[in-house]
Amino acid sequence: NGRKLRLEIGDHKSGEVKAATSEMSRMVSIFKVPAVLPSFSAPTLAAQAMAAESDAVLINGGGFSPQLLNKKFLWNNRITSNLMAVAVLKEAWAGGARSLCMIYRQDPSGIDTAAAAADWWTKQGGKVLCEEKYDIAANNFSSQISKIRSVRPDALATFAYGQQAGIVIKQARDFGYTGPL
Description:
Largest sheet: 3 strands, parallel
Low-confidence stretches: none
Order of helices and strands: HEHEEHEHEHEH
Shape: elongated
Mean pLDDT: 94
Structural class: alpha/beta
Radius of gyration: 19 Å
Strand content: 15-25%
Distance between the termini: 48 Å
């Protein structure tokens, strides 16, 4: 309808909070943007206070931590991880799994997902045998997979995404884990 849009791009470097806050500051201070499309939970959470201060709307399409809910100037358009985790675990439970290990990213999305998963799993009567965390820049999970394999869970919850999800799954299979993922 005749409105002109200008696109400004910033990089949070795959989830680095410091990079995200620096870019958000640049967006609202220099470019005076009215809206930002963030991604990943930790950068979005970090940018939210600046968005609220500057009346810039965040339209979250990438982060899925439940911490992102009910925040001023933050709109979410995806399901949160606590709901996703339960949906996935219901399938594992229905398939007969009763012991679980989890591997997840050491950030709000991973931590919140694992907390919701562990809560639901134990309320069903299941046991969480281990929780293995990894850094956002990790690409080798052999240490975590080795620990997981040693306790022999019925199911392995891989709360990972992007390239890391594929690497976790491949390394789990390479290490001999044959159960459901």
